[in-house]
Design goal:
Helix content is 13%, strand content 40%. By secondary structure, it is mainly β. The protein has helices at 143-150, 174-181, 215-225, 292-303; strands at residues 2-8, 13-18, 23-30, 39-47, 55-63, 87-88, 98-99, 120-129, 134-142, 160-161, 169-172, 182-187, 193-196, 199-204, 207-212, 232-233, 239-243, 247-249, 259-261, 265-271, 275-280, 285-289. It is built from four helices and 22 strands. The strands form six sheets. It has a six-stranded mixed sheet. A hairpin with a 4-residue loop joins strand 2 and strand 3.
């Protein structure tokens, strides 16, 4: 069972999200040049933190940068949806279904645009419980990391499972792959912000936070700042620091255990009065500000 989103990581690898387990499923496109034989083949399943019996994943989506977006990265509601794809059989042996866009034989469909390998994928999850409690969680992982797990060489010597006549599929528990390769952040409302490359930005209470997960920029910032945790205030008022220590996400009603994640990043926090939303590309960040006029227009539209 999947959420409303998938992520095309490369010309061959697609990321699907399983709601029931929950887990990330990495699939390889097979025979894509032949519309009659095209299929998805599961190569790796990355388990997510175990939920309690009172919790479930109500909604899941992916946010990532696709090449060709102009000029700013789009939000998750505008990305590809598997429900728009024709149904195909799968050779994974996992009982899952798969989708593939239509296209000419021997030609790749223009909608199958892959995420740059030097980028991040943000998995947005809404968790609900029997007591009507809900929370929103962002899981951030580098695209290059997911592609490494999908590489056959990475699976040499690994434990897998296979059905009758089906090749083995690597299944990794969360404790094996998640804590060192991801960062989980929680918030009380839907994700709002921008994403470009290995940087993502969010805005909350007129405070813009940019997190940069590029390893080179993390190392450079560590050298300039003198170590993780050291803060530097720039002339413009922004505060910059490197976060390398593990962060702990605690929601006992949703997860069996507290979740530790430690993917390093450079954090830049900027105060921007009245900022309600942001868009970004490689060079610029545009802030949407609620002015007196726009606030009056919003109030009048709500009354109507």
């Amino acid at each position: 069972m999947y959420g409303s989103e998938l992520s095309v990581l490369s010309e061959e690898i697609i990321l699907l999200i399983r709601l029931r387990e929950p887990a990330l499923e990495l699939c390889r496109l097979a025979n894509i040049g032949d519309s009659g034989k095209a299929s998805l083949e599961t190569v790796c399943i990355l388990s997510l933190p175990v939920l309690t019996s009172r919790a479930c994943l109500q909604w899941v989506g992916c946010a990532e940068e696709y090449p060709g977006h102009a000029p700013f990265s789009k939000n998750h509601q505008q990305h590809l949806s598997p429900h728009s794809y024709p149904h195909l059989t799968t050779s994974s042996g996992t009982g899952s279904s798969a989708w593939l866009p239509e296209g000419r034989v021997g030609a790749r469909c223009s909608r199958l645009r892959s995420v740059p390998s030097d980028s991040i994928v943000k998995v947005l999850m809404q968790l609900n419980t029997l007591s009507d409690f809900y929370c929103m969680v962002d899981l951030i992982v580098r695209c290059r990391t997911l592609l490494e797990f999908a590489n056959p060489q990475a699976r040499v010597g690994a434990t897998g499972v296979a059905g009758m006549g089906v090749r083995s599929v690597l299944i990794l528990p969360w404790e094996t792959w998640g804590p060192a390769n991801t960062r989980i952040l929680g918030h009380g409302t839907f994700w709002c912000g921008g994403l470009c490359g290995e940087r993502c930005a969010t805005v909350l209470m007129s405070r813009i936070t940019i997190r940069d997960y590029n390893p080179y920029r993390v190392r450079r910032a560590l050298a300039l700042l003198g170590g993780a945790g050291s803060e530097v205030t720039l002339a413009c008022g922004s505060v910059v620091k490197v976060v390398k220590e593990a962060s702990v996400y605690r929601v006992g009603e949703c997860f069996y255990n507290d979740i530790e994640t430690s993917l390093p990043y450079v954090e830049t926090v900027t105060s921007y009065d009245g900022c309600r939303n942001i868009s970004m590309d490689e060079n610029y960040l545009v802030a949407e500000v609620l002015t007196t006029v726009s606030h009056a227009q919003l109030r009048s539209s709500l009354k109507a």
